[in-house]
């Protein structure tokens, strides 16, 4: 059966997550999705990211959609889904993105990075998201 086409488990519950659990889940992953609107066209793009002092940072290439997020309000989402067990969670961060140019901060972010960007190539344009809103939810079953 294709992913997402399994039946819901008996008695699923949608449980909101508190901020501490949201940050714990965000810190446990390395790939999320950045969502923004560019010239009236919304885009959602996967990015490798790190959590730094309560903020989300990712690196990209100059001129890309994810680089053009700098200076705009964006959505950032991370999730995990278990189709077989009808369980999963999702965390959403909404905030303003900015280009990181301070050499000390760029160095710090580079040290925190555990993986090379999946897209390959030179990715030296860092974007930092300052959260304005954080929310999360989990689907649990009996």
Structural commentary:
This protein is mainly beta and 142 residues long. The protein has a single domain, classed as Electron Transport, Fmn-binding Protein, Chain A (Pnp Oxidase, Chain A, Roll), CATH 2.30.110. The protein is 13% helix and 49% strand. The protein contains 2 helices and 7 strands. It has helices at residues 19-27, 103-112; strands at 13-16, 31-38, 41-52, 55-60, 73-82, 87-100, 125-140. It has a 6-stranded antiparallel β-barrel with strand order 2-3-4-7-6-5. Strand 5 (73-82) and strand 6 (87-100) form a beta hairpin. It is globular. The mean pLDDT is 86.
Helix content: 10-25%
Structural class: mainly beta
Q: Order of SSEs, N→C? A: EHEEEEEHE
Strand order in the sheet with the most strands: 2-3-4-7-6-5
Provide keyphrases for this structure.
142 residues, mainly beta, Pnp Oxidase, Chain A, six-stranded antiparallel barrel
Quick gist of this model?
This protein is mainly β and 142 residues long. It has helices spanning 19-27, 103-112; strands spanning 13-16, 31-38, 41-52, 55-60, 73-82, 87-100, 125-140. The protein has a 6-stranded antiparallel barrel with strand order 2-3-4-7-6-5.
Task: Furnish the topology, listing elements before pairings.
Elements: E1 13-16, H1 19-27, E2 31-38, E3 41-52, E4 55-60, E5 73-82, E6 87-100, H2 103-112, E7 125-140
Antiparallel strand pairs: 1-7, 2-3, 2-5, 3-4, 4-7, 5-6, 6-7
